[in-house]
Each structure stands twice: as C-alpha cells, then as structure tokens.
C-alpha cells in the first residue's frame, strides 16, 4: 500500500529541578514550528538522590494552558482534531509554547527532567477509510466505539457514521482513537438516500413530500457546509428516484459487495464522464451489523489528503484524489502525469505521458485502462506484486483504471479496484 512518511522533527530538552523549587510550577519553553499537524510530548525524570521525585506534566500554548495530566501520564499527544484525554485538540499555532511541570516532590539532591518533543508536520498522503456506515444511532447493531475499534484494527484512518436521518452520533463519537470521525447523516427518504458529510447537523427536518422539499433539504445541508453524495443510486430496493439533476457533489459508485447495482452506477458514471462532466466517485460499505459479505471498509475509499482531519479528507475527495478498493488490503492504483495526479486536470501545455501504477496485484488480475472511448487496453497480470504502464495522452479527455479479480469465495470475477480519472484540458 502507498506509504508516506510524515515529515517530523524531534527536539530534546533537559531541565534541572532543584529542591528549593519544590511546590512551584516550572516551565520548559519551546518554539512551536509552522505547519504542525500533531505534537507528541514525552518526559522522564532522573533523581540525583535516593528519594523518588514526583513531577507533574502539562502544556501551554502562547495564550492558555492546553492540557494537564498531573502525575497520571508521562506522555501525551495533541492534534488538530484529537488529543490525549486531559488535553485540548485544535490549531497548533506557531510561536512560544512551554511544557509545564509541577515540582510536587523534589529530593534534596534535586532531579533532572528529560523532555522529548516530536513535531509531525502537514504531509500530504494517502489515507483510507469508509464513507458509509451505520450504528445503534439508527438501525445498526454496532456501537460507535465498536465501529471505531474495528476501523482501527483494519489500519484505517477515517470513518463516516452516516446513520439514517440521525445526527446524535455526531455528538458522541469516541475521542480516544486515532481514527478520524467524519460527521455524517444519511438523508433517507422513501425515494432515495443521500449522505451529508462534514457537519454536525446538516438539516433540521428530514421529512419530504416532493422534489421541491428534497431540493430545499439539500440546499440547507449545502449552506451549512455539507458535502452531498447520492447513495446506491441504482439499488434494487432503495434507488435514487428523485431527479438525477438534484444538487450533489459526489456519486457512490460502489456500495457494499460488488453487484449488478454497482455495475449500473458505474455505467451511468462513465456516461457522465464521457459527456465531459467531472464527477467524483466514492464508495462505502453501508455496514449495519455483522454479516458474511457486508463488512467495514469493504469497499475501502482511499483519499490523498493534505492533513489527517475531516476537512483535509473531504477536500481531498472534492479534488477527485480518490481510489476505491474492495478492502483495505486490496489493490491500490493511481495515475500521474508530470506533477498532476488522479483527479487533477492536466494543463494543455504538459505533454508528459500518463503513468499508471498499481500495487498489490495478483496473478490473473485484469487491468483495464478506460477513457471516454471506453476500454482502451486490457492486460491480464502474469505475476503478483506491482504493475506499471506508461501511455500517451492521445488527445483524450480522461483516463481511469479498473482492476477485476476472480474471487474463489464466490467463484465470480468482480471489481477489485477503480480510480477516479485524471483529466486533460482540451
């Protein structure tokens, strides 16, 4: 899978604490650099005598105390959206910060604290997760904590818990997890479903009678900052029967296991692309409860994001920097052309070839290169590992890639991975 090492900087400070400083608060100043996404602070204390020192821990930024854990912890993390209990997440403004110590007990001979601070900087990277899940807040059986724990076990980075016409889950997400919790709601009507992503309360009332009501609800969600996805639009049981011209941002081309409904969504999406429309395709498991084939992050949506935050992930999707694989361990592919990547529109003064790279391919996988003219190339992989292709632009409007695999579990050849297009200015 794509690996992006986050750029980091490690700084160590040492501070002697003398016995006369007992019962006072000690600051160890440090400079917070620009563009920090997450800061890790660890400390240890070494006694200069036989008595054991007791030194408490906390931190301040340039304006206020951002956290205090007393003697309960020897390390903590503060990020843009998550932090160790006892500490406040939020913007990590560059400037004057300090690690705080309470010199509660100091031996007569004194002691020394060693503080190690690791700064993790904004680093654009591929993140993976699930954009369509449910919980006990609607008709699912998983608690929010169970959903988060499963995603963490899968090595995923984000989850949107999109309960039907409910927003209560957005106010009770588990905080102590590295998985980014994207606020969501599945706007569920009798004639189609749509995900509203990114805001706590996208609408006040889900009930609709007609297309005008649907338009008003979606307009409200958009005004409040939500991203709008048309869900399983060609489903056999709950398709989108409202107007397809309804305002929306993204198209759920892959919902749950690959079936005929996804084939129909894929065909419609391809028609839109061929007509010149740039429409971002997403995926989601739509998991509700333990089932044999419907599981978390199946499919798995990959997003190239500037930051591991709600906004960073949603902005990455909006740019079309998205690929979808059948699972977190499925094949992963991307397209590049010079400095441009999947989702971008290549300037007409760039003549570079398009490079297609796919990881975790298996022998027998079928790789399809697709443009507005349909399938332009099909290759059956003769080995397992990585696959690469370089192709000329040839005046095409876009290229995208699909990987099809034979799954022995169901004795069927199904979609294993697809990318959003890379477009060309014409």
Mean pLDDT: 97
Kindly provide the name of the CATH class of the largest domain: Alpha Beta
CATH fold-type name of the largest domain? TIM Barrel
Total DSSP helices: 4
Largest sheet features: 11 strands, mixed
* Low-pLDDT segments, ≥5 res: none
Question: What is the alpha-carbon Rg in Å?
Answer: 25 Å
The CA-CA distance between the termini, in Å, is 33 Å
CATH superfamily of the largest domain: Metal-dependent hydrolases
Per DSSP, what share of the residues sits in E-state strands of 2 or more residues? 35-45%
Architecture of the largest domain, according to CATH?
Answer: Alpha-Beta Barrel
* Shape category: globular
Structural class, judged by helices and strands?
A: mainly beta
Total domains, how many? Answer: 3
Could you estimate the helical fraction of the residues in percent?
10-25%
Q: What is the number of strand segments? A: 29
GO molecular function, one term: 5'-3' RNA exonuclease activity
InterPro entries: PHP_domain, Pol/His_phosphatase_N, Pol/histidinol_Pase-like
Domain Polymerase/histidinol phosphatase N-terminal: 129-191
Protein name: Phosphoesterase
List keywords for this structure.
11-stranded mixed β-sheet, Jelly Rolls, 426 residues, mainly beta, TIM Barrel
Tell me what you see in this structure.
- There is one protein chain.
- This protein is mainly beta.
- The radius of gyration is 25 Å and the shape is globular.
- The chain contains four helices and 29 strands.
- It has three domains: 8-121, Sandwich (Jelly Rolls); 124-329, Metal-dependent hydrolases (TIM Barrel, Alpha-Beta Barrel); 330-426, Immunoglobulin-like (Sandwich), CATH 2.60.40.
- 11% of the residues lie in helices and 42% in strands.
- β24 and β25 (374-380) form a beta hairpin.
- The protein has helices at 144-153, 211-223, 260-274, 310-318, and strands spanning 8-17, 25-32, 36-47, 54-55, 57-60, 65-70, 75-79, 95-105, 111-121, 125-133, 158-161, 180-182, 184-189, 192-197, 227-230, 250-255, 280-284, 300-305, 322-325, 332-337, 340-341, 345-346, 354-361, 366-371, 374-380, 385-391, 398-407, 412-419, 422-424.
- Strands 10, 11, 12, 18, 19, 22, 24, 25, 27, 28 and 29 form an eleven-stranded mixed beta sheet that branches. Strands 2, 4, 5, 6 and 8 form a five-stranded antiparallel beta sheet that branches.
């Amino acid at each position: 899978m794509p690996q992006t090492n986050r750029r980091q900087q490690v700084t160590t400070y040492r501070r002697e604490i003398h016995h006369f400083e007992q019962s006072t608060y000690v600051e160890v100043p440090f400079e917070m650099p620009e563009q920090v996404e997450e800061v890790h602070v660890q400390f240890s204390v070494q006694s200069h005598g036989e008595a054991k020192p007791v030194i408490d821990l906390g931190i301040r930024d340039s304006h206020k105390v951002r956290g205090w854990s007393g003697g309960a912890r020897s390390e903590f993390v503060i990020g843009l959206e998550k932090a160790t209990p006892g500490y406040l997440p939020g913007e990590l403004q560059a400037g004057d910060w300090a690690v705080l110590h309470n010199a509660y007990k100091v031996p007569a001979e004194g002691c020394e604290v060693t503080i190690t601070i690791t700064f993790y900087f904004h680093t654009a990277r591929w993140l993976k997760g699930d954009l369509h899940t449910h919980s006990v807040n609607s008709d699912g059986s998983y608690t929010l904590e169970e959903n988060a724990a499963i995603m963490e076990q899968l090595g995923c980075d984000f989850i949107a818990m999109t309960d039907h016409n409910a927003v209560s889950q957005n106010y009770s997400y588990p905080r102590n997890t590295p998985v980014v919790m994207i606020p969501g709601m599945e706007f569920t009507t009798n004639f189609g479903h749509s995900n509203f992503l990114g805001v706590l309360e996208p609408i006040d009332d889900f009930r609709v009678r007609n297309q005008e009501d649907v338009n008003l609800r979606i307009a409200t969600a958009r005004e409040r900052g939500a991203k709008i996805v048309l869900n399983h639009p060609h489903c056999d049981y709950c398709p989108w029967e409202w107007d397809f011209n309804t305002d929306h941002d993204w198209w759920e081309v892959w919902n749950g296991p690959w079936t005929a409904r996804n084939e129909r969504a894929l065909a419609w999406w391809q028609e839109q692309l061929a007509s010149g429309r740039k429409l971002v395709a997403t995926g989601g498991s739509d998991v509700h409860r333990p089932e044999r084939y419907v599981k978390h992050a199946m499919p798995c949506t990959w997003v190239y994001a500037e930051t591991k935050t709600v906004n960073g992930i949603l902005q990455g999707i909006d740019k079309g920097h998205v690929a979808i694989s059948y699972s977190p361990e499925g094949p992963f592919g991307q397209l590049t052309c010079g400095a441009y990547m999947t989702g971008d529109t290549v300037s007409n003064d760039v003549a570079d070839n398009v490079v297609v790279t796919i990881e975790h391919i298996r022998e027998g996988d079928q790789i399809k290169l697709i443009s507005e003219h349909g399938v332009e190339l099909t290759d059956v992989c003769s080995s397992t590992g990585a696959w690469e292709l370089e192709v000329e632009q040839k005046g095409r409007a876009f290229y995208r890639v699909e990987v099809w695999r034979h799954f022995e579990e169901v004795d069927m050849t199904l979609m294993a991975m697809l990318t959003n297009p890379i477009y060309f200015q014409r």
